[in-house]
């Protein structure tokens, strides 16, 4: 498999009033094409910081991040982000929200009709065609996140970055969206990095689960390979030995090795 | 609660068939009642449905009507004690005569009340328009650039509390004429809320939206048209609403000082003629116009407000 993203000795510290705060240190990670990687850890451990570094929304204070052979110097549409709070623009319809990204990426080479077809295809992929002309305020939280995913996929990014994409949703909606995402990833073969704090979500969706130690100065504690055939089905997995093993390994890491200090 | 219990008993004693067609009047009424009684009310027989909205309308109108009655009552008592103040009846008759011909013109010092209101509104519109043309772009720049904000904040803080009328002599000096000087005071009083609210709106554009812009790598033009402008618009409209409010307050005072045609000058003129009933009419008219301006802008603002949590 070809390596897509290399993270080399990356560290991140923030200047605060009380002096320098080290959020991340010595992060080394390689993400291959077509791979789905989860970042898991207790809250405040710098998962989102690491994702923002890959997105280019923040730049590291140490080390370097490389995507497709080039150093990441800022955000760009080849690294699409699905935000936790969907971040759809409320004054645009769902269609226009997705179109905004499509136009930016393909507008130079393709005509309006083609751009519209792409937008519609992405919206259909997440089964939201019926709500294309609605504004985000008129649809539910789960539907908004579907549109957020469609917007990211429509740009055909090299890598898709998801920051707790289903964190704000109720359990049933979350399961439905996870299944949706499994389908979309299967279809597109996308490379995905996903921040999560949900153990089942991590095992169900990823090829590898990267576990971060507690902050401050968090780093990679363990990396777990999930050897489960794809596409995965949550019903048949429930009693699968490998699934249980992975789940147990993550829980052991989170609740035994990295016990959360009383917050 | 009485409405709900009423419909409950009506329903149990006289269960209407579900297939009965509902009149349009009933459906609008159902939207106004709370969820629980709605389903019951939907199958109610027709006659009671008209009584209920009328009753509700009466209950809604009663307090304001009583309030106005009280005001007029106090006014009537005061006018009986003090011969200088005309009674409500005298004012009413004066108003009827005045509004029967609002657009007459007998030279610059004797024009109908309609002309006076319109020329005041015209001054407000011009001064306000210039203030918007200068204040909104300035507010955008102050919101966008920290340096400008740091440079201009002390100046704005110093000048904002100054009564715009203090600027009137400067206007007279520069423009050499009363009319543009009055417009000038409107410009001065309108510009501060416009600058400050626009700047605040720009500073409060949610970081999420700006992150979207960065990830999508939108061009500066798209950032302005698709993200900055729509998210600042509600703040801008608040600024505009505040500006119009103050402008309408200030124009009366400014016109009293500058003269010419206008509602403020008219008030002063009628004072010189000792037509106190006309002054009282003017007070109501000024209030009404201010109210209408405010409502108009609230309606516009409603169209452009987005719930940022949605």
Comma- or semicolon-separated keywords:
A: 263 residues; alpha/beta; 8 helices; B: 310 residues; mainly alpha; MetI-like fold; globular; disordered N terminus; membrane (chain A); cell membrane (chain A); ATP binding (chain A); transport (chain A); nucleotide-binding (chain A)
What does this molecule look like?
The complex is a heterodimer of chains A (263) and B (310). Chain A is an alpha/beta fold. Chain A has helices at 47-55, 94-106, 112-125, 141-154, 171-188, 199-205, 234-237, 241-257; strands at residues 3-16, 19-32, 36-40, 62-67, 70-71, 79-82, 159-163, 191-196, 208-212, 220-225. Chain A has a domain at 1-72 and 190-263: Rossmann fold. Chain A is built from 8 helices and 10 strands. In chain A, helix 5 links the parallel strand 7 and strand 8. The model of chain A has no long low-confidence stretch (mean pLDDT 88). Chain B has 310 residues and is mainly alpha-helical. At the A-B interface, strand 6 and helix 2 of A face helix 10 and helix 11 of B.
């Amino acid at each position: 498999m070809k390596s897509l993203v290399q993270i080399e000795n990356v560290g991140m510290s923030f200047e605060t009033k009380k002096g320098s705060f080290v959020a991340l240190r010595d992060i080394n990670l390689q993400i291959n094409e077509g791979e789905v990687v989860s970042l898991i850890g207790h809250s405040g451990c710098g998962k989102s910081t690491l994702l923002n570094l890959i997105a280019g929304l923040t730049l590291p204070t140490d080390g370097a991040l490389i995507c497709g052979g080039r150093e990441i110097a800022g955000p760009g549409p080849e690294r699409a982000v699905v935000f936790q709070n969907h971040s759809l623009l409320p004054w645009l319809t769902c269609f226009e929200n997705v179109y905004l990204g499509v136009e930016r990426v393909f507008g130079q080479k393709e005509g309006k009709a083609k751009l519209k077809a792409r937008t519609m295809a992405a919206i259909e992929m997440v089964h939201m065609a019926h709500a294309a002309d609605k504004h985000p305020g008129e649809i539910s939280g789960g539907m908004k996140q579907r549109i957020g995913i469609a917007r990211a996929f429509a740009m055909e990014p090299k890598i898709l970055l998801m920051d707790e994409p289903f964190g704000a949703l109720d359990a049933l909606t979350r399961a439905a969206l996870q299944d949706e995402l499994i389908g979309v990833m299967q279809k597109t073969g996308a490379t995905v990095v996903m921040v999560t704090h949900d153990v089942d979500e991590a095992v169900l969706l990823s090829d590898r689960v990267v576990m971060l130690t507690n902050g401050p100065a968090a780093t990679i504690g363990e990396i777990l390979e999930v050897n489960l055939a794809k596409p995965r089905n949550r019903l048949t997995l429930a009693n699968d030995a490998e699934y249980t093993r992975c789940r147990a390994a993550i829980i052991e890491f989170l609740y035994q090795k990295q016990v959360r200090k009383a917050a | 609660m009485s409405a709900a219990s009423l419909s409950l008993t009506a329903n149990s004693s006289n269960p209407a068939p579900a297939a009965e067609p509902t009149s349009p009047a009933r459906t609008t009424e159902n939207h106004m009642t709370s969820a629980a009684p709605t389903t019951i009310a939907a199958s109610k027989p027709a006659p009671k449905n008209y009584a209920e909205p009328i009753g509700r309308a009466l209950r809604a109108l009663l307090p304001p009507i009583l309030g106005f009655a009280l005001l007029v009552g106090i006014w009537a008592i005061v006018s009986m004690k003090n011969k200088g103040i005309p009674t409500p009846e005298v004012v009413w008759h004066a108003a009827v005569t005045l509004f029967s011909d609002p657009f007459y013109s007998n030279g610059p010092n004797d024009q109908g009340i309609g002309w006076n209101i319109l020329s005041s509104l015209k001054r407000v519109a011009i001064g306000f328009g210039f203030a918007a043309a200068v204040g909104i772009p300035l507010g955008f720049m102050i919101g966008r650039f920290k340096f400008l904000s740091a440079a201009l904040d002390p100046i704005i803080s110093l000048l904002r509390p100054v009564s715009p009328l203090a600027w009137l002599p400067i206007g007279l000096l520069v423009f050499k004429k009363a009319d543009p000087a009055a417009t000038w005071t409107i410009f001065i009083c309108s510009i501060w809320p416009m600058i400050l609210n626009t700047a605040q709106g720009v500073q409060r554009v949610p970081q999420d939206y700006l992150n979207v812009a960065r990830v999508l790598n939108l061009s500066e033009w798209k950032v302005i048209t698709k993200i900055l402008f729509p998210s600042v618009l509600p703040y801008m409209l608040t600024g505009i609403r505040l500006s119009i409010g103050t402008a309408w307050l200030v124009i009366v005072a400014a016109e009293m000082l500058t003269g010419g045609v206008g509602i403020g000058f008219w008030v002063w003129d009628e004072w010189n003629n000792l037509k106190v009933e006309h002054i009282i009419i003017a007070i109501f008219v000024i209030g009404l116009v201010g109210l209408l301006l405010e409502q108009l802008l609230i309606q516009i603002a409603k169209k452009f407000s987005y719930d940022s949590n949605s």
